[in-house]
Structures are given as structure tokens and as C-alpha cells.
Design goal:
Layout: H1 7-24, H2 37-55, H3 71-77, H4 82-92, H5 102-115
Length: 140
């Protein structure tokens, strides 16, 4: 024999369904951008050759060029996908002179991530990566 539900039971079932849907839609922690040590090393060479004349060898920037490492940089780019930084660098940098190819510029972005304290990983940073930029913390 099949038992019917009361209006109160149906209401409880609907409430549980909404709670489950709400929990499932909560934002998950976003993955950090990943790059390899080799990629960052290659990026350092390109950075020193092409970018350091404006942004300084230590990424400190100057009066007319932004800092690429530290609190100011992380305030601008922290929490954003590394691919957004790459898209900007690829479109706008350097503003004059010899422009490295896209792979070399991606390596420069990897170097910038390393200089901002992000740990290297096992996969190269590329234009399809969805990882975010953040300062590394002890818990990670």
C-alpha cells in the first residue's frame, strides 16, 4: 500500500531540495595558476632582456611603469586568472621595440608569478589554464 505525503512533509522535502541545490551552487575554491620551474627560468631570461629596462630588473617598476611583484601588483591582479594577465601582456607589452612571441611572453608571466611567491607546479602555464593569481600561503 502506498502512503501519501502530507502538505507538511512535501514542504520539508522541497526545503531539503533547495538546501541541497544551494550547497551545490556555492563557489568552490579556485585553483592556483600553475607553471613549471623551467618555464619561469625561461621567462626570467626574456624579462631581463625585454622588460627590465622599463619595469626594473627586480620588477619594482618606476614612476611611469607598474610594479610587477608585491602588494601593488597583487592588488591589481590577485584573484584573477593568470590568462587575463597573459592576454594583457600579449596585447600591450612591450609598447615599443622587439616583441617576443606568445610562448616567450607566457614564460614571462610564469616568472612574474614566481616572483610573487606562487609555487611552481608540474604543468606549464598556457592560454587555456584557468588558475588564479594569488600570494602563496603556508596552508597551500
Amino acid at each position: 500500500m502506498m502512503r501519501s505525503t502530507t502538505p507538511r512533509q512535501r514542504l520539508a522535502i522541497v526545503a531539503v531540495c533547495f538546501l541541497c541545490l544551494g550547497a551545490a551552487s556555492q563557489p568552490r575554491e579556485r585553483a592556483l595558476a600553475s607553471y613549471t620551474t623551467t618555464q619561469a627560468q625561461a621567462g626570467e631570461e626574456t624579462y631581463q632582456d625585454v622588460c627590465a629596462s622599463c619595469h626594473k630588473p627586480d620588477l619594482a617598476g618606476a614612476s611611469d611603469t607598474p610594479q610587477l611583484a608585491g602588494d601593488t601588483f597583487l592588488g591589481m591582479w590577485g584573484g584573477r586568472p593568470a590568462t587575463e594577465l597573459f592576454a594583457y601582456v600579449n596585447a600591450a607589452m612591450p609598447p615599443a621595440g622587439r616583441k617576443p612571441d606568445a610562448d616567450a611572453l607566457m614564460d614571462v608571466v610564469a616568472y612574474i608569478l614566481r616572483k610573487n611567491g606562487m609555487p611552481s607546479g608540474t604543468s606549464r602555464l598556457d592560454s587555456t589554464a584557468s588558475g588564479i593569481i594569488t600570494r602563496a600561503t603556508a596552508e597551500r
